[in-house]
């Protein structure tokens, strides 16, 4: 095989080689990516094929599909699916007691070629997932591509959990974007990066209530701390309490230091109501954006409608009344 062939040229030679049959994988991909189909663990498919760059080496190419919604922020209307391609190479030596010989490293160029042969144009949107485990010993190579219900591939969100997507073990993971053949996509990546900012996803899914509550408090607290930090020594606010009650209520108490005297405030936050409000009005049920919005409220010198004053504390309700 000429040493100067690109992964795309190698992929073309793979698809045209009569000795390499990827039909089982193509058929399985067609079924699991069909509109309305649900990803299942038993929908994986593997083929064993000869390496196109290494002599006397067999490559096992495996493909399967799963639901990525728990791995990052996705558009809930897009029914996104995650296709994973795993590659593992073994020398063609006799098996000992039904055990394969130790795996060997497959050249990166050939890895990308197999991914392009399997995924076609969608490979432009693929990522190679590298883990720390793969750096110290030979492991399967994992590639991920995200596909929406209409068959369109998409870039990954910035909060994507790469380690969980790799299935390769280890403690850390990061993505390496496959360089696309499409010049327009390449132009976009060079200017905007290879991930979609999670806070710009149009129709995100909401976390379960117990997770939403923790995410809200975390975002709320971080936002308040950031705003106070920006004030430096001129702090006009003192926060006495940020407390989560169960999974459905948060209490915030603070003092606003004014020239004519301190004024005490309390926020009584109904999390279920706030979450429903954010979804109904903003089509955004993310706890992080709700937390940032409420956390910035004290610093915008607000005038609250119909607050309840109890023992000198101005109580403001969030969520319950929309």
TrEMBL record:
Report the protein name in the record: Uncharacterized protein
């Amino acid at each position: 095989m000429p040493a100067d062939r690109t992964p795309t040229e190698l992929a073309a030679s793979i698809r045209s080689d009569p000795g390499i049959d990827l039909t089982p994988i193509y058929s399985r991909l067609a079924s699991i990516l069909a509109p309305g189909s649900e990803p299942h663990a038993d929908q994986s498919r593997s083929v064993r094929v000869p390496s196109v760059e290494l002599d006397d080496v067999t490559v096992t190419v495996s493909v399967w599909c799963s639901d990525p919604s728990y791995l990052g922020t996705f558009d809930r209307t897009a029914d996104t699916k995650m296709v994973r391609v795993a590659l593992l190479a073994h020398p063609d030596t006799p098996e000992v007691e039904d055990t394969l010989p130790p795996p060997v490293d497959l050249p990166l160029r050939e890895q990308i070629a197999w991914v392009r042969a399997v995924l076609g144009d969608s490979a432009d949107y693929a990522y190679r997932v590298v883990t720390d485990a793969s750096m110290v010993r030979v492991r399967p190579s994992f590639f991920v591509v995200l596909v929406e219900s209409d068959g369109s591939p998409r870039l990954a969100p910035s909060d994507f959990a790469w380690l969980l997507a790799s299935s390769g073990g280890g403690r850390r993971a990061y993505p390496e974007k496959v360089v696309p053949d499409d010049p327009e996509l390449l132009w976009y990546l060079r200017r905007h990066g290879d991930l979609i900012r999670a806070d710009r996803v149009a129709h995100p899914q909401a976390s379960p209530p117990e997770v939403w509550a923790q995410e809200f408090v975390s975002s709320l607290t971080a936002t308040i701390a950031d705003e106070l930090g920006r004030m430096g020594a001129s702090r006009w606010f003192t926060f006495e309490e940020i407390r989560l009650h169960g999974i459905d209520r948060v209490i915030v108490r603070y003092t606003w230091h004014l020239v004519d005297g301190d004024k005490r405030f309390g926020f009584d936050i109904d999390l279920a109501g706030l979450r429903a409000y954010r979804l109904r009005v903003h089509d955004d049920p993310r706890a992080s954006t709700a937390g940032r919005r409420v956390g910035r409220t004290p610093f915008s010198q607000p005038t609250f409608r119909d607050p309840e004053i109890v023992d000198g504390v101005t109580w403001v309700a969030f969520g319950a009344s929309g």
